[in-house]
């Protein structure tokens, strides 16, 4: 802390707080007082309710926002399918391919920047599980764009919430509720249904998206940690009202609906919200503000201590989606193998690298803008070189991940890989296992027997006899 933002200065104002009830007006008096839908809203505006949950969802889960806009969202022509060969947003990939459910560990080389496409046409579904029509599951995307969206075009996903992890460049996002600048080491969440337009003030961009088909992201429970640490609620930033007045220009509204893209025309800007209040809005977060927790005695805690945001299933403690980061941190654990241990997990783990080098993969295979997928019960852990170094390293306090940020999309679901992700992108590393774990060597030695059948002290690892519990 603070995060590395470089020369990219903030240009917008925000409201602070996660899941806080916010209100904002670009013109004083635009918000009605004491009522949500008066007969005549201020300044001749239309009142429109945006519902992110069912009306009757429990109060602590309910997410609704009232918008006061120049024209309502319903004033558009019929949606028509919009076909393109550049994007891939359908989990079923019909009729272009199929989903591959395989137990192999997978790793991808860095995905290419593409200066020929805008935000929407750059979306490529790499993996996922579930069905957006049933509001169940997740989708994992790569984006790589080089052009601004058309000046009279806006996009929204009816399928789920977009958690955007920027790896390269700068995103200037105009949303219905205000503007957001996403800089290096920041993430942005745009909930289901909210329209936005993406421009690229510093040229090409690249990154990752976790689309959540069910529920919404929440902060994880802290349990015995207490009331603070990890991602603190005050560090999340929501936009302030900012509107355009345009009722004479043809706009195209692009909708991601059931994994397909549709387009509709309207004669007014969708960015005409003069005021709003509620709990359903886009927000961003600076990963440099994450307050990391770790062991100060021995052993390596579970990576759940690095969870920024979570979306729980109906089984407490089991997530449809977790967003986890591995920021710079001090390691001080005594008599401990400090990198992550080898493990097999009932959860699927998709990892990406924003910048730097991940401490559990010190070879050259896991690179910024690349990715890996370790599916349900697929064994993984440090590569052979990392294990060798960590096994003989001096266990003095030292900092890992300096100038680095790796992350993980974790899910209880078995994740399938799309045809694009497995074959068409041509980024899968065929030698992932051969480089990482096949070089591991056995170090097991049977203890020498002496008189009464016990092992000699010198034959026990470290020269210390084991003490029974």
UniProtKB/TrEMBL annotation:
Residues 439-469 are annotated as: Disordered. GO terms for molecular function: homogentisate 1,2-dioxygenase activity; metal ion binding. Pfam families: HgmA_C, HgmA_N. Its EC number is 1.13.11.5. Pathway: Amino-acid degradation; L-phenylalanine degradation; acetoacetate and fumarate from L-phenylalanine: step 4/6. Homogentisate binds at residues 358, 380. Residues 439-449 have a biased composition (Basic and acidic residues). The active site is at 300 (proton acceptor). Residues 289-444 form the Homogentisate 1,2-dioxygenase C-terminal domain. Residues 13-287 form the Homogentisate 1,2-dioxygenase N-terminal domain. The keyword Iron applies. GO terms for biological process: L-phenylalanine catabolic process; L-tyrosine catabolic process. Keywords: Dioxygenase, Iron, Metal-binding, Oxidoreductase, Phenylalanine catabolism, Tyrosine catabolism. Fe cation binds at residues 343, 349, 380. Belongs to the homogentisate dioxygenase family. This is homogentisate 1,2-dioxygenase. It comes from Lepidopterella palustris CBS 459.81.
């Amino acid at each position: 802390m603070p995060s590395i933002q470089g020369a990219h200065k903030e240009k917008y104002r925000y409201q602070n707080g996660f899941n806080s009830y916010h209100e904002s007006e670009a013109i004083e008096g635009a918000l009605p007082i004491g009522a949500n839908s008066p007969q005549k809203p201020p300044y001749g505006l239309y009142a429109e309710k945006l519902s992110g949950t069912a009306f009757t969802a429990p109060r602590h889960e309910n997410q609704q926002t009232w918008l006061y806009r120049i024209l309502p969202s319903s004033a558009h022509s019929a949606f028509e399918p919009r076909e393109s060969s550049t994007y891939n947003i359908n989990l079923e990939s019909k009729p272009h391919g199929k989903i591959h459910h395989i137990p192999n560990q997978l790793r991808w080389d860095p995905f290419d920047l593409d200066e020929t496409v805008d935000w929407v046409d750059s979306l490529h579904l790499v993996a996922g599980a579930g069905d957006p029509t049933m509001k169940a599951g997740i989708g994992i995307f790569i984006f790589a764009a080089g052009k601004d969206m058309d000046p009279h075009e806006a996009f929204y996903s009816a399928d789920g919430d977009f958690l955007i992890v920027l790896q390269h460049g700068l995103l200037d996002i105009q949303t219905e509720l205000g503007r957001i600048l996403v800089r290096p080491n920041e993430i942005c969440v745009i909930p289901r249904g909210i329209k936005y337009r993406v421009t690229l003030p510093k040229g090409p961009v690249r990154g990752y998206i976790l689309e959540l088909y069910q529920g919404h992201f929440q902060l994880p429970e802290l349990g015995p940690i207490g009331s603070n640490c990890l991602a603190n609620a005050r560090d999340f930033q929501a936009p302030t009202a900012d509107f355009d007045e345009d009722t004479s220009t043809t706009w195209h509204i692009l909708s991601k609906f059931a994994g397909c893209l549709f387009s509709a025309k309207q004669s007014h800007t969708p960015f005409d919200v003069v005021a709003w209040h509620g709990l359903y809005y886009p927000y961003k977060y600076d990963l440099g503000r994450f307050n990391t927790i770790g062991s100060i005695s021995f052993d390596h805690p579970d990576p759940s201590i690095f969870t920024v945001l979570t979306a729980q299933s109906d089984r407490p403690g089991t997530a449809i989606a977790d967003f986890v980061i591995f920021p710079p941190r001090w390691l001080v654990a005594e008599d401990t193998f400090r990198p992550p241990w080898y493990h097999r997990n009932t959860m699927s783990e998709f990892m990406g690298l924003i910048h730097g080098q991940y401490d559990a993969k010190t070879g050259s295979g896991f690179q910024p803008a690349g990715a890996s997928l370790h599916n349900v019960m697929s064994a993984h852990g440090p590569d052979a070189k990392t294990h060798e170094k960590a096994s003989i390293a001096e266990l003095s306090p030292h900092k890992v991940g300096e100038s680095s940020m790796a992350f993980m999309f974790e899910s209880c679901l078995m994740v399938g890989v799309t045809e694009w992700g497995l074959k068409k992108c041509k980024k899968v590393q065929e030698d992932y296992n051969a480089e990482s774990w096949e070089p591991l060597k056995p170090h097991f030695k049977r203890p020498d027997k002496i008189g009464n059948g016990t092992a000699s002290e010198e034959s026990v690892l470290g020269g210390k006899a084991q003490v029974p519990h």
